[in-house]
Write a structure and sequence with these properties.
Helix 2 packs antiparallel against helix 7 and helix 5 packs antiparallel against helix 6. The relative contact order is 0.22. It contains nine helices and four strands. The longest helix has 22 residues. With about 220 residues, the chain is an alpha+beta fold.
């Protein structure tokens, strides 16, 4: 199965070949991967900063300072870098915006379906906002759904990647004005092509045994 092979072949790239760059066609596919990810109730509570220029990568690399300096080269030597950010608040205005976009895209055969869908999504948002009081964690979970499909997607394109939480996320928020836009960064993914000197490229993959993690009933 090709999908399993892709999962088996991909790994977290520790060193990129600076001479190899992602093509424009693949960059368009990368944007589509970010856009098409599933999310709970299709709420899509995310924002992405895509750095492809040296200047853009240098701005992201500001967050790889001090304790996080070990990740600096993974940012600066990559072909492209994506900052994943989650929404800090979900307003009625935003929910209506999502519903209107769905309507424009033809998802509702009847007007009543549009209202019912909007009301159902609002129930879940309000549940996390007022009952569970974990809205920020819930929105971040949706971003990580995106992250998972993104890593698989870029691997299927033959592009190497490394997801990183080891960066100063507050600095990223400040650098790109994310909090003012209603978002906060949570993970960064560097993209490109592995260097021949990358020690991690040839190491065997290690996962817990199926019998340990899957209970068949």
């Amino acid at each position: 199965m090709q999908l399993v092979k892709t999962l088996n072949d991909r790994y977290s790239t520790k060193e990129f070949d600076v001479s190899k760059q992602i093509s424009e066609a693949d960059m368009e596919s990368i944007k589509s991967l970010l856009q098409l990810s599933p999310s709970s109730t299709n709420v899509q509570p995310w924002h992405f900063v895509l750095a492809t220029t040296e200047e853009g990568k240098a701005r992201v690399a500001k967050a790889a300072n001090g304790f996080y300096s070990f990740n600096e080269s993974k940012v600066t030597n990559a072909s492209a870098v994506v900052v994943f950010a989650s929404k800090t608040e979900i307003t009625e205005e935003y929910l209506q915006h999502v519903t209107n976009k769905e309507d424009e895209d033809g998802r509702f055969a009847e007007e009543e379906f549009k209202h019912a869908n909007h009301a159902g999504r609002k129930i879940f948002v309000d549940m996390h906002k007022y009952d569970y009081k974990d809205l920020s964690h819930w929105t971040e979970k949706q971003v990580y759904l995106n992250l998972g499909s993104f890593l698989l997607g870029v691997a299927s394109l033959g592009i190497d990647a490394i997801p990183m939480e080891g960066l100063d996320m507050k600095m990223l928020d400040e650098e790109f004005g994310l909090r003012e836009k209603g978002f906060t960064s949570c993970v960064v993914v560097s993209l490109g092509y592995r260097s021949e000197a990358d020690f991690n490229a040839d190491l065997p993959k290690s996962r817990l045994d199926l019998a340990e993690i899957i209970e068949e009933v």
